[in-house]
Structure prediction request, 246 residues.
Amino acid sequence: MTHLAIIGGTGLTQLGGLTISKRETLATPYGAASAEFITGELFGKRVVFLARHGNPHRIPPHNINYCANIWGLKQLGVERIIAVAAVGGITTSMAPGHIAIPDQIIDYSYGRKHTFFADDNFPLTHIDFSFPYHAKLRAELIAAAQQVGLSISETATYGCTQGPRLETIAEIRRMEQDGCDLVGMTGMPEAALARELGMEYASLSVIANWAAGKTEGEISMAEIEHNLQLGMAKAADLLKGFMALS
Ligand code: HPA
Prediction:
């Protein structure tokens, strides 16, 4: 079976139902990864789990060592990555608690180490990134959602902001004009780094809140946490369906 990893984001620091067989801290040329790489079985299938923000959750999006994380997974033989991410919803169908499998990205982040092709480790390559998420892996996630009777959005454009602050109303208005449906802080450079190393990558985006200006009042952490509980339970169902199909 193709070796699968799940990267857990906010709301998924630990993967419930994972029977752990191994925990590894890997030395990478890029430094330390966010957390131990945990190998185990999820719903009967082998998987490597990595907590993107560390365990406990503490690393802000702009300080995540994306290169070490992706490099470490590659070293462990991982070929496919399901990246679970908490996001804000911008367009009308992206309500809190809903799940989307995005098909496009716009990167608004800055100052992050975003490529493996910046030093002599690799010959310079300009990867094709027309379709930033892997088509087959996306299709399998969508099929899994159907299998477990979950209504999801099968396409969406993910806008990646720098964080850790949330956005202004004007920033979200601009992002919507740009075509973004979702806003998150960790989608890039993760997706591009996986592509650079030839790994399949797809995002399972869980909507935690309406983005700035899309609802009355301020966005609270309590609201985000509440919606994430609901959304992550759906994500776990979807993953169960995915494992059953794979
Ligand atoms: N903006 C950016 N990232 C997020 C949000 C948001 O509103 N919600 C969850 N992650």
